[in-house]
Amino acid sequence: MNIQPDLIPGIYNYCDAWCERCLFTNRCRSFQIQHETGLTSRPNAGDDLVQQLTEALNLTRKYVENLTRVQNLTDTDGPTNEQALALEEKAVRRIDNQGQVVSKLASNYLRTTGLWLDEEKGLLEQAGQQQIRDVELGIRTQEEAMPVLHALKDAWEMIRWYRTLIPVKTQSALRALAEPTNDPQLTNYHLGKAKLVLVSIDRSLLAWQTIIQFFPEKTDDLLDLMALLSRLRRELETLLPDARAFQRPGLD
């Protein structure tokens, strides 16, 4: 008898929606829904990410609404109207300054990487042709060439996947400032989104380093792009200093 393992509560709230690389799909309710409705075998990676983000959003929206409703019913010792207004104004000021910087950096990264990927869309094919020539000339063996191609393909896929996710989840994380709360569950929810962004940035930077390793002539352009991404990480860690230490269920 095939016994299904226990689901990990809320794991889909903090994941990168890259189900084909996930080790916990059999413990994720979001994946179960997608599998049941045939949404786990879409051919286009970009469409797949958008669809999975949408599915996760549908699941988490109700989660957040329920938490907010419970807080409103039980928080009898909450701030007065004047205190709440002051907190809201303070949050708006923070978003107008630090948060807006973070949001703009994330959007700029999406735009810049889109331009670069379009300009370099033949890069993987170029790398493949080079490896074939090297093998034919005896410069390297096929066994030596394949890891190079796999590393480049993996880096390329990571860059494409996370460039879309980073700005989307950054906006979600910034809600911690727009909607301040005393509810630890809601606080953790937003910190988890910020942690996801930080992890996505970490992986993206490693992927860019891989591209530079095999295409050093691209270094100048990519260093500027990596500097943008590094600044986004630094600003987000400053804005939400507890995010890096947050432990996502099943993922950290």
Q: What is the element layout, followed by pairings?
A:
Blueprint: H1 29-36, H2 45-74, H3 81-119, H4 123-136, H5 142-173, H6 175-178, H7 184-214, H8 219-239
Count of DSSP E strands?
A: 0
Structural class: mainly alpha
Question: How would a crystallographer describe the biggest sheet?
Answer: none
Q: Give the rounded overall mean pLDDT.
A: 77
Describe what this molecule looks like in 3D:
This protein has 252 residues and is an all-alpha fold. It folds into two domains: 58 residues, no CATH class; 148 residues. It contains eight helices and no strands. Helix 3 runs antiparallel to helix 5 and helix 7 packs antiparallel against helix 8.
Please name the defining characteristics of this protein.
0% strand; single chain; 252 residues; mainly alpha; globular; 71% helix
